[in-house]
Amino acid sequence: MSNILEVRGLEASYGDLTVLRGIDFDIADGGVTTLLGANGAGKTTTLRAICGMIRRKGEITFEGKRIDRMSTENIVRLGVAQVPEGRGTFTTLTVEENLQLGAMTRPNDKSIHEDIEKSFHFFPRLKERRTQQAGTLSGGEQQMLAIARALMLRPKLMLLDEPSFGLAPLITKQIFEILADVKREAGVSMLIVEQNASLALGIADHAYLIETGSIVMSGEAKAIREDESVRASYLGY
Amino acid sequence: MATSEENMTGGPAIPRAAAASAKKSGSSLGTIVLAVLVIGAVILPFASKNFFIFQMTQVMVYAIAILGLNLLTGINGQFSLGHGAFYAVGAYTAAILMEMQGVPYGWTIPIAGVLCFVAGFLFGLPALRLEGVYLALATFALAVATPQLLKLSPFEHWTGGVQGIVIIKPDAPFGLDAVLNPDQWLYFFTLVIGLFLYWLARNIVGSRTGRALMAIRDNPIAARSMGVNTAVYKATAFGISAMFTGVAGCLGAIVIQFVAPDSFTFALSVALLVGLVIGGVGWLPGALLGALFIVFIPNVAEDISKGLAGAFYGFFLIAVIYLAPQGAGGLIRSGLARVKRML
Amino acid sequence: MDLFIQQVVSGFATGGIYACMALSVVMIYQAIHHLNFAQGEMAMFSTYIAWQLLAWGLPYWAVFPLVIAISFVGGFAVERIVFKPIENAPVLSHIVIFIALFAIFNSFAGFIWDFTIKAVPSPFGDGPLYPGAPIGTHQAGMIGVTMVVLVMLWAFFRFTRMGLAMRAAAANPDSARLVGVKVSMMTALGWGMASAIGAVAGVLIAPVVFLEPNMMLSILLYGFAGAVLGGLTSPAGAVLGGFLVGIIENLAGTYIPVIGGELKLPIALFLIVAVLLIKPAGLLGRRTVQRV
């Protein structure tokens, strides 16, 4: 299987504080990759660096094309959708407007409307709230909206930052089920950043472990899940 | 004041240790510079013409006003486009007390200070709830409305309406009038008050209150959770700031010998803000540099081309924001740091 | 009672001026979450350009769109040249730049066209709307134009993708980038539009107040008052607020003896502070509802 995204020697820092110290990883085309690690290990920074939201050094290749010097908007236009930390909801706009924005880079035609209906099929809760201000949604609903908005791009690669963050276990489970559906039905490649390792390893094909800005381990998700010593020393469950 | 590197122009916070050492060497150097300046300032009125003495007195007056604004903006992170209003309150206090009540001019200064503190505190109370743009808006409105507030008819009996009030220039007391002409006397009078206020400002910055104000500037939520009553402190900061500017207004009125509503337009508030930015936000001595700029540069600009003083101001401001967002203070500090590195 | 009604109607007429200005204030607020203190001066400068073009003999209805276009490009350019380099600077830097622009436009207008008062003709004539009407044809025309601009803006933001993208860029720039919106372009467009609306305001106001470099300072203050009263997030609120400010100003001038006919700026100050304290979102502004 070929790789949709290849990252080599990625470095990033906030001011004097170095967060990523030259990391390498690949995301397989059509697969789900997960990046695990504790708080502050550099997971969110990795996603922000891929999308050009912070200054970064190193090589990032998306579908054979270097994107490490491109602006966020242009990277998005290539088909990279991010579901950011804190969900990035446009709180003052309606749910439907949020979804329309997801399709901003696509030509304006009927298919957008069809995709909105499709999102409502995936997330019936959003349909009930389509004309509400998105800021009034619950945390779980906002997470659903963020995923639906990212799907509106018809992305080739989706980057998800802690989709379980701050959500009740039941809602989290629901969201991961939907992500599994998306993977199966739409064939979107995904990179999921998570603290909840057992959930992420359940859906992923391949996993990387990041610790204070460096990749310390990588392997088949299945193998990592079953490795007692990794579990005890890194994942803590 | 070495810690002002991390002021609201958003520069990265410098490490504590570096700040502390900079403070140490900076303050001994600062003492020398201050001593040289004071000696120069004492000699100056005996070596120049009356008009220049008058101009330098004005520089000191504006420096005090800018010092007040700097306390608000640099230390507490609030800003004001309306400090011309407090300057006006101070000026009118002097004029009304001296010319209508016969109060000796020396007494008008503490009275103006107290009045402006109260006015600033009261304006600051609602202003608390206003942050960023809203505060700018409220103070902008205050600045634009000031001349008309001064013209309102119920106050006309006191303010003299559009005509304003003429003040008689005081002579030097204690037989000093044999040595000093009134211009020289006012110059020294202003100098002494200015030095006192500078000392006061430095002490405020170093005090518990000062640290609380800076904590509020840097992280309002954390400050609140540590038990700092942000509301009272912010209003107090506004009051203190207004007090300085009001005392400047009071001195300004005595020096210029005249107050009228149209001396206190939006342009005055703008000039004070310009002085603050040029001198360097958060760096107290910058007030003097800022004041020199606003007193002398418009004249130079007018000489180059009539009517273009405003444009000159504007371009200069933009250049400062682009090239030296920390103002003259920032330039001097980075220059010193470079010299130190070379040694 | 007659006096009251007459004052309300004529307040409504001056309110048209403020409504126009408030609308352009809200436009820029939508784009950059800032109040542009140089907005009035930019509008004044646009008006001078219109006056100049008229003086060169161009017909009014050619000058009007031309000035709007020039102002749009001008506002766009000011953003690109002056603001873009410091877009991430703190609020104080932005305010200083506004003040700088204020000084520059004011000073250049005086330098180029001198400080004498100039008359700008009205396209609507200067008689009363009907014999004995308290409102002139120009005022009526001005109110009409303001309404048309408002409806056009509303439609633009509500129904076009570009409008939606601009709203998104203003609401949450980071997220807007993540859906591919070119945020900094949206900001520049916002400046252009605000400047164009300011030009409309300036050209319509000039026949009433006469053209001179300082004509806009107090009008801008009323415009701010109108925008705040109506709600900074709401173009319709801004127009409503503008009219209300006009009416309140007139009634206060008539019934509060202290204020009199001339000295009405303190009312704007009072209104701004009062609204910000009592109802910061304004009458029609949207309160941001947010759940964490």
From TrEMBL, chain A:
GO BP terms, alphabetized: L-amino acid transport
Record keywords: Amino-acid transport, ATP-binding, Nucleotide-binding, Transport
Gene3D superfamilies (UniProt xref): P-loop containing nucleotide triphosphate hydrolases
Location of the ABC transporter domain: 5-237
InterPro entries on file: AAA+_ATPase, ABC_transporter-like_ATP-bd, ABC_transporter-like_CS, BCAA_Transport_ATP-bd_LivF, P-loop_NTPase
A Pfam short name: ABC_tran
Listed SUPFAM superfamilies: P-loop containing nucleoside triphosphate hydrolases (SSF52540)
Family from the record: Belongs to the ABC transporter superfamily.
The protein's name: Amino acid/amide ABC transporter ATP-binding protein 2, HAAT family
From TrEMBL, chain B:
Residue intervals passing through the bilayer: 26-46, 52-72, 79-98, 104-125, 132-150, 184-201, 235-260, 266-295, 307-324
Subcellular location: Cell membrane
GO MF, any single term: branched-chain amino acid transmembrane transporter activity
InterPro entries noted in UniProt: ABC_transp_permease, LivM-like
Principal location listed in the UniProt entry: membrane
Assigned keywords, A-Z: Cell membrane, Membrane, Transmembrane, Transmembrane helix
Protein's membrane topology: Multi-pass membrane protein
Pfam families: BPD_transp_2 (PF02653)
Name of this chain's protein: Amino acid/amide ABC transporter membrane protein 2, HAAT family
Lineage: Bacteria, Pseudomonadati, Pseudomonadota, Alphaproteobacteria, Rhodobacterales
TrEMBL record, chain C:
Entry superkingdom: Bacteria
Localisation per UniProt entry: Cell membrane
Coarse class of the protein's main subcellular location: membrane
GO terms for biological process, alphabetical: amino acid transport
GO CC, one annotated term: plasma membrane
Transmembrane segments: 12-32, 60-83, 95-115, 135-157, 188-209, 215-232, 239-259, 265-285
UniProt-listed Pfam families: BPD_transp_2
Keywords for the protein's UniProt record, in alphabetical order: Amino-acid transport, Cell membrane, Membrane, Transmembrane, Transmembrane helix, Transport
CDD domains, per the entry: TM_PBP1_LivH_like
Entry's Gene Ontology molecular function annotations: transmembrane transporter activity
Membrane topology summary: Multi-pass membrane protein
Protein family (similarity comment): Belongs to the binding-protein-dependent transport system permease family. LivHM subfamily.
PANTHER family: ABC TRANSPORTER PERMEASE PROTEIN, BRANCHED-CHAIN AMINO ACID TRANSPORT SYSTEM PERMEASE PROTEIN LIVH
Record's protein name: Amino acid/amide ABC transporter membrane protein 1, HAAT family
